[in-house]
């Protein structure tokens, strides 16, 4: 079996919206992408590198499992567009064995620290390799020291400015080296879970840790299990095909590495302690500290083994998580809320939110088509939306300033709208297709399309793509200007950050939120697992302000529509209920919310 990984997850690079439909295809594409990346570090033949990249893309774009094609004696992998003889052979090996010797060799040949350094925004593969060679850098900490001591600027081609760029970007690289997107953790958790389901010895099993809490990135996966035979359970765990190493194996805990580097822990506990252990290892640490304080005030003690009456060491709860919270007079708290950000007060006052669920979503108000940088046509996106049970969608391609995505000018935009008009009859009663646009907020301020054009749209998203590094006042002014434009409905990806890759704009989010309220506008929670923008803390703030949140996929392909669930996770972490999210309502209702 192939270890399934997300697009270039190893590197953390890539604009990353995730194809979900054929996991196996994605896993193989990932392997080729990673190889291309590592070959780039070694300055190998650019044509070869391009062939691997192209092959990865071709496989990712296939609309059927490549394993099926491989099995079909009437078809040849090498006949597929973008797949040459070499890649076809390697694909067969991957399908067969789940491994590729060349990838292992490349991983060995390119030092991990160089890959890590290259993740620093503004550095690149070449500079990273040079720094490693010249300064004998073995870790990101070494690099930091070298910058602080001013030794980097002594190398030809590097200056004091580079040192500052490196220092500014180190935190991001450090995170990327250590943490993966929740979406990737979710994929791993499903594979490992499916493998562990085959273990006859295990009677109870549950994921804990930051993964269960739905944090946007996770440091490692924590599995908790009850087993009749602990040794057998651990053996089974070690037999996971994606395992590359066992870090430690003891009586009750075992840690392995999967996908080359990522750590997965499994702890084995007694059935009557399972709930207490689940509560403890779900965390967060801050939540647990607070919970124990509450217990202490009641003369109780909570630890990973149970809830105990202080003096008598008598276990009074712990088989289920509910019993742990109940023992201290609290209702069960959703894992997404366990960050000590007010959940105890809500639990005590019976005000815990009823968190939003995926099934509450009725529409998707941000997606692209092949008119700009999307892969699927208008019709294909509409049909895919129906398949996913949506009642309405807005087509929001880029505006002309986003030239790299061949953004639309008013003429092309109106052509698209004519096409939508022509489709509407066909889709009546099945799907409402809204005429939208993702209009760029220009660097100098103002919108990228004239007002009379925006006035014709059903739905206008405004977003920043250029001048992201402007100072706080300037970028805040730009966004406020967009909010005040009467035709703009919603600010898309309001902070601009990419998890582990790019910091947010310096925007004054509080000022933005106040303006959004004053102008009766909405804010987006972009569900792309690399964005998740707004983040959980901002979402909680938006909820306090009463701002309707729109959870959108920003899909650039049919598969892109499937990222909605990641947005829902983040929304739950922000404490959002169905009522806080605009696209749980009908389009007519949304229009009313927007009317000044
Ligand atoms: P991660 O893995 O960095 O994304 O975050 P977590 O929250 O999964 O952290 P992890 O894997 O180190 O530990 C899982 C949970 O176990 C954590 O949320 C709380 C609990 N825990 C672990 N170590 C400690 C500790 O030293 N003190 C306390 N109070 N709780 C701990
Ligand atoms: Ca963890
Ligand atoms: Ca852990
Ligand atoms: Zn977009």
UniProtKB/TrEMBL annotation:
Protein species of origin: Novipirellula artificiosorum
Species lineage: Bacteria, Pseudomonadati, Planctomycetota, Planctomycetia, Pirellulales
Sequence ranges assigned to domain DNA-directed DNA polymerase X in this UniProt record: 23-339
Domain (Polymerase/histidinol phosphatase N-terminal) ranges: 363-443
Location, primary (coarse class): cytoplasm
One Gene Ontology term from the biological process aspect of the record: DNA repair
SMART domains, per the entry: HhH1 (SM00278), POLIIIAc (SM00481), POLXc (SM00483)
Protein name as catalogued: DNA polymerase beta
Gene this chain is encoded by: polX
Ranges of residues in domain Helix-hairpin-helix DNA-binding motif class: 75-94, 115-134, 150-169
Cofactor annotation: Mg(2+)
Localization (cell): Cytoplasm
GO molecular function annotation: class I DNA-(apurinic or apyrimidinic site) endonuclease activity; DNA binding; DNA-directed DNA polymerase activity; exonuclease activity; phosphoric ester hydrolase activity; zinc ion binding
Annotated EC: 2.7.7.7, 4.2.99.18
């Amino acid at each position: 079996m192939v270890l399934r990984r997300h697009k270039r997850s190893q590197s953390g690079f890539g604009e990353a919206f995730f194809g979900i439909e054929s996991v196996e295809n994605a896993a193989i594409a990932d392997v080729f992408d990673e190889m291309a990346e590592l070959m780039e570090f070694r300055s190998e033949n650019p044509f070869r590198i391009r062939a691997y990249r192209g092959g990865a893309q071709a496989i990712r774009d296939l609309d059927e499992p490549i394993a099926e094609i491989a099995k079909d004696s009437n078809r040849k992998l090498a006949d597929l567009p973008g797949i040459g003889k070499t890649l076809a052979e390697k694909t067969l090996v991957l399908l067969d064995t789940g491994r590729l010797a060349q990838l292992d060799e490349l991983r060995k040949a390119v030092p991990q620290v160089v890959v890590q350094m290259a993740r620093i925004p503004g550095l690149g593969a070449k500079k990273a390799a040079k720094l490693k060679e010249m300064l004998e850098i073995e870790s990101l900490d070494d690099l930091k020291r070298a910058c602080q001591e001013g030794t980097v600027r002594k190398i030809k081609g590097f200056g004091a400015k580079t040192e500052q760029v490196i220092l500014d970007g180190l935190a991001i690289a450090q995170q990327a080296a250590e943490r993966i997107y929740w979406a990737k953790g979710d994929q791993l958790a499903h594979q490992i879970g499916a493998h562990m389901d085959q273990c006859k010895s295990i009677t109870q099993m549950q994921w804990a840790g930051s993964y269960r809490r739905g944090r946007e990135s996770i440091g490692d996966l924590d599995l908790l299990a009850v087993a009749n035979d602990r040794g057998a359970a651990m053996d089974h765990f070690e037999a996971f095909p994606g395992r590359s190493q066992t870090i430690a194996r003891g009586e009750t805990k075992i840690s392995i590495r999967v996908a080359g580097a990522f750590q997965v822990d499994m702890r084995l506990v007694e059935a009557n302690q399972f709930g207490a252990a689940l509560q403890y290892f779900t965390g967060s640490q801050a939540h647990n500290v607070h919970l124990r304080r509450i217990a202490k005030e009641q003369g109780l003690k909570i630890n990973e083994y149970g809830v105990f009456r202080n003096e008598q060491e008598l276990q009074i709860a712990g088989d289920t998580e509910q019993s742990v919270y109940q023992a201290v007079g609290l209702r069960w708290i959703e894992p997404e809320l366990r960050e000590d950000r007010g959940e105890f007060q809500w639990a005590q006052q019976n005000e815990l939110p009823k968190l939003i669920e995926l099934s509450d979503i009725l529409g998707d108000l941000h997606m692209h088509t092949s008119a700009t940088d999307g892969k699927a046509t208008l019709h294909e996106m509409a049909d895919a939306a129906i398949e996913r049970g949506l009642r309405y969608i807005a087509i929001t391609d880029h505006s002309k300033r986003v030239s790299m995505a061949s953004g639309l000018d008013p003429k092309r935009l109106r052509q698209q709208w004519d096409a939508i008009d022509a489709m509407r009859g066909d889709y009546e009663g099945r799907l409402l297709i809204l005429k939208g646009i993702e209009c760029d907020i220009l660097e100098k301020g103002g919108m990228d399309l004239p007002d009379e054009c925006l006035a014709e749209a059903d739905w206008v998203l405004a977003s920043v793509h250029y001048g992201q590094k402007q100072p706080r006042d300037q970028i805040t002014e730009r966004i406020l200007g967009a909010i005040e434009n009467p035709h703009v409905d919603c600010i898309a990806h309001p902070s601009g950050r990419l998890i582990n890759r790019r910091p947010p704009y310096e925007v004054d989010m509080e000022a933005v939120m106040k303006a959004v309220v004053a102008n009766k506008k909405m804010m987006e929670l972009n569900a792309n697992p690399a964005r998740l923008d707004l983040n959980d803390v901002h979402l909680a703030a938006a909820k306090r302000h009463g701002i309707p949140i729109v959870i959108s996929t920003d899909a650039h392909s049919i598969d892109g529509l499937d990222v909605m669930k990641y947005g829902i996770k983040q929304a739950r972490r922000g404490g959002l209920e169905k009522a806080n999210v605009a696209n749980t309502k009908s389009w007519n209702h949304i229009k009313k919310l927007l009317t000044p």
